[in-house]
Amino acid sequence: MRYGFFGAGNLGSAVIEGMIRSGKIFPQEITVFDKVSQKSVTEAYKVNGAGTVKELTGASDILFVAVKPADCREVFDEISKSFGDGNCAVVSTVAGLSLDEIDSIMQKRAPVARIMPNLNARHCKSVTAL
To answer: How is the chain split into domains, by residue range?
Structure first.
């Protein structure tokens, strides 16, 4: 399984760290795209970095979207335009945006789930709403 992260700030990096700490997911299975923190996250966790959103979606079976609500509509639109054959599933951590709204923005191009983890994901101790 390959995991992608669009956004690797506090929440995204906490989930990445927890996934790796679990011992069930390896750094080489994770690809990150983040305009601000990509370099620091790829160096800290030894995960892959994507140069474009299309590269990220192509490298992902499950794509986590961990961005600020103010940026999410643009991000979901960009993701949906980059899908090719064999679309990945999308998991949103974005607060305040319903599944129906995400489906509408993405024109139902991928299955979508919503989660709300907390920063304790970093230590594999998150209480996560699904």
So the answer is: 3-123
